Amino acid sequence: MSNASANLNIMVKAARITGRKLLRDFNEVENLQVSTKGPGDFVSKADTMAEETIREQLTEARPNYGFLGEESDETFGEDPTRRWIVDPLDGTTNFLHGMPHWAVSIALEHRDQIVAAVIYDPLKDELFTAEKGEGAWVNGKRLRVSGRSELIETVFATGVPFGGRSDLPETLQDLARIMPVCAGVRRWGAASLDLAYVAAGRYDGYWERRLHPWDIAAGILLVKEAGGIVESIDSDDSPIVTGDILVANEPLFNRFAKLVRDTH
């Protein structure tokens, strides 16, 4: 996008610098997979390093903005209307297991609205960007949500709760309603990329519960700017507030939403 704002350029720079460092660490993780110690401690350090790198870049450029990240306590800036919302390594479990599907996610919030977004996948060198009112882009190419309107042709994405979380039965019920009427459901383990892929028309829709603001903030703007619809599953509040999210293109949205929301 040629007319990117100064803030978006700052975000892109931070995401690329962090992505390069994570790539080096990911190569090391692949080596650690075969060791007896395993890569767990190493990855937690990579996560922390990534957030420190992003925080340093963003704070140096905009010292007055607040900062909400996954790995540290929220910082409130002198400018109370603006904050960065950052997931330094979305898809940590994939990263930990040497699977090449993870990303850096940075959003800028102004007066409770996401106004700029960057999701960077260093392994594929795909840089997804959006600014409010300016469209969504990947590597300079305009993004649009898919044009599919028949459920049986669609591919949806979701997250499946792990480790005995209490919402696992609910998700399994969702899958029982949705999988028989579509072409497939994917669970790739990185919410930011799920949303970016909806914006790119690769997925036709996405839903998930019990998410954090940093999981979805950047992706929400990407989907909206690519022409998609974004709602919470069970509330009129923003998904950033509720932690649950439902997105699809306009022709599919109501039917898809009914499938997800029909819990009886």
Overview of the structural elements:
The protein is α+β, with helices and mostly antiparallel strands and 264 residues long. The protein folds into two domains: 137 residues, Fructose-1,6-Bisphosphatase, subunit A, domain 1 (Fructose-1,6-Bisphosphatase, Chain A, domain 1, 2-Layer Sandwich), CATH 3.30.540; 111 residues, D-Maltodextrin-Binding Protein, domain 2, CATH 3.40.190. Helices cover 39% and strands 22% of the residues. The protein contains eight helices and twelve strands. The strands form two sheets. A seven-stranded mixed β-sheet has the order 1-2-3-4-5-6-7, with helices on both faces. It has a five-stranded mixed β-sheet with strand order 9-8-10-12-11, sandwiched between helices. It is globular. The model has no long low-confidence stretch (mean pLDDT 92).
Features:
D-Maltodextrin-Binding Protein, domain 2, five-stranded mixed β-sheet, 264 residues, 22% strand, 2 domains, 8 helices, seven-stranded mixed β-sheet, Fructose-1,6-Bisphosphatase, Chain A, domain 1, 39% helix, single chain, alpha+beta
Q: Which SSEs are present, and which pair or pack?
A:
Elements: H1 6-32, H2 40-61, E1 66-69, E2 82-90, H3 92-96, E3 103-110, E4 113-121, E5 126-131, E6 136-138, E7 141-142, E8 155-158, H4 168-178, E9 184-186, H5 191-199, E10 205-208, H6 213-225, E11 229-231, H7 239-242, E12 245-248, H8 250-261
